[in-house]
Amino acid sequence: MKVPALKRLLLGCLVMLLLLGCMMAWYLFPGQSRPVRVDVVVVLAGVDDGRHALGAELVKAGVAENLVISNPAGTEDVVGSSYCRGKRAPVEAAGTWCMNPDPVTTIGEALTFGQLAAEQGWSSVAVVTNRPHTRRVRMMFRECTDLDSEVIHIKGVDWAAFPTQMIHEIGGHLKYRLFDSCVS
């Protein structure tokens, strides 16, 4: 028995919607690490979506004594720059570092941070990012560094930016698996 073209089209659309829904759920619910005592908290570069404040909050709560801010945009990233230059130090005793990843990608952040961690003698890190970025960050820090790493994401989601973020994350996963890996 032949299935009419319209039914095949509808079935194909339904399958695509289910796949899209599964992918969205995968990025929206990546699992959340619990803050545990680590050597350092690193906040990945990005918009002022609360990640810098969360990183500082973790240091204030005693999760780590050191804070690293990935700040490739320098002073153009007003919030990131103010944190990494110590103007918003979470506690006076906290060591604060600015990091300029090379290349300016998540892999670059993992590799550059891995080098800084080796220089400082750090073996554990809590990495702070946004929720859609969590899975890729977790994969790259675990595969590109020798550190015991936990990824902690901000709670909120920028729904207006989410479609673009999802495309970026899918592309980033594919690019990493197909071309980049951890080779610097």
UniProtKB/TrEMBL annotation:
Pfam families, per database record: DUF218
DUF218 domain segment(s): 39-151
InterPro entries named in the record: DUF218
UniProt-recorded name of the protein: DUF218 domain-containing protein
Source organism (scientific name): Corynebacterium occultum
Classification lineage: Bacteria, Bacillati, Actinomycetota, Actinomycetes, Mycobacteriales
